[in-house]
Amino acid sequence: MTNTNEKIKIAVFVSGGGTNLQALIDAQQSKIIENGEITLVVSSSPDAYALQRAANAGIKTVTVSRKQCASQEEFEEGIKKALCENSIELIVLAGFMSILSENFTAAYPKRIINVHPSLIPSFCGKGFYGLRVHQAALDYGVKVTGATVHFVNEIPDGGEIIMQKAVSIEEGDTPEILQKRVMEQAEWQILPRAVEKVAADMIKQRKGN
Ligand code: GAR
Questions:
Q1: Fewer CB within 10 Å, N or C, the chain?
Q2: How sure is the predictor about 3, in pLDDT bands with cuts at 50, 70 and 90?
Q3: Which atom of ligand 1 approaches the CA of 15 most closely?
Q4: Residue 107: what pLDDT?
Q5: Ranges of H-type helices in the chain
Q6: pTM over 0.90
Q7: Which of 117, 121, 126 is nearest to 146 (CA)?
């Protein structure tokens, strides 16, 4: 039986620097996130600096490398096993650069959240990740971009939007400068708030049952 007073157990999936993971850890410490608790960090790369951030915060980590798995199925089974063993209820993709199949996303409906560094439906979908997103925004010449937090379904960056925040593009921006502004002004702000919102809704649902 689930203890109704327990916080929602969250796994954060990472692949690189982990600044969004850091924003989530900080939000937990400052009680912006109080209905959930990050109990596991899953990395697709053994070299991700995000693993160090998790270790510094005393959070358990597991690395499942796609390259070391013979197939997508084996990769996803490895992840699912870690999620089950740690009773994970909510997954947050925070700069996770490996593809998850429909088979995986369908197993966690409305239980996977992603942060994307543009205002969806602009500059999103297959091939749009990291600096490429900001390069595309600059190439197009838009004057406003931002970040989106959304649920993950079988369509890349196509799930229901939870929160968005706009950020101005300035004269002389490079993809790197723009990425930093979008992270500081949008991603690190809305990701923790969106996670808290979903966790609070899950707790409400649990109490209603
Ligand atoms: C972030 O900008 C995140 O939005 C983006 O990768 C970066 C990861 O940084 N994700 C995507 O592009 C997914 N399509 P971080 O490791 O420092 O959080």
A1: N
A2: low
A3: 16
A4: 97
A5: 19-29, 49-56, 72-85, 102-106, 131-140, 175-182, 188-208
A6: yes
A7: 117
